[in-house]
Amino acid sequence: MKILTVVGARPNFIKLAPLSKELGKNFEEIIVHTGQHYDLEMSKVFFDQLDIQKPDYNLEVGSGSHAKQIGRIIMRLERVLIKEDPSLVLVYGDTNSTLGGALCAAKLGIKVCHVESGMRSYDKIPEEINRVVVDHVSDIFFCTTETAVNNLKNEGITKNVFLVGDLMMDALVSHIRIAEKNSNILKELGLKRNEYMLATIHRAENTEDKLKLKSILSGLISSGEKIILPLHPRTKKHLQAYSLTGKIEKSNIRIIRPLPYLDMLVLEKNSGKIVTDSGGVQKEAYFFKVPCITLRTVTEWKETVENGFNALVGSDSSKIHKAIKNFKISKNHMQFYGNGNAGRKIADILVKLKGKIQ
Q: From CA 72, how far away is CA 136, in angstroms rounded?
């Protein structure tokens, strides 16, 4: 049986790594990289570090508006799907590659499997729209949490829904020791454990709004804390467009290049706090028991907030400042996301479903 996997962005690559190794034991897997993330630090380096097989196809869709990016994915992927004729198309998470892959497959009558289905933040940001649409054209649903299972149930989706845990936990468990052994990022940056904070900003809702981006920077700068900011290409573009780069110069914020996965894990684990608008980084912070301050007013990872490890502050500079100074985590760390065996669970379930898929 042939499974075609569609990926295109950093979170997809991280989830792909543990599952692809398991799928290879029983299935023929074709990997399609849409090219949504095409920068070396955002793409190729992940395949190298995570030991993922080279993609069989690269659609090279590049950047652009949501419509252009998704449109290119659908048009270029259609040719691949017709040629390869897979029994199942597998997509991850909530990126434009996820939506483009699911829509293209569903239109061709090919069954769709959505990994990390059922996640909801209940705000109409692009990622939430992607999640909802993908779930409603999919046939098989692998959920990270009980909350996700219940979200699908509330939307009338109950067939072929499986609670398996989080592939990001699989990846972290597999790679943290390798990262700590091989990464020199702390030495390279002259950092020591708990003596700095890590920040990431990339979501369109924060980067494409000048007032929000300016407010976020004000909150970070006013804290006076040593903050390391790996700069996403989108954020860099908007900082320059809004003439905000000068605001960071000579401040407590240190801009560095986007980081490979292993270096990022080491920075996360050793940081005093993490300030982010990334869903994946929120989870990694939780796995490492590092206080997380989320630059959104809602999150799909509600368990991290309810368990006292995540503070939602939006783009409000005052709230950001106060959280950096005062937020402390709960001592009650619950394991909501599995034990690092989600990949094996998913592969085993797909083996059992073979007869129904083909």
A: 21
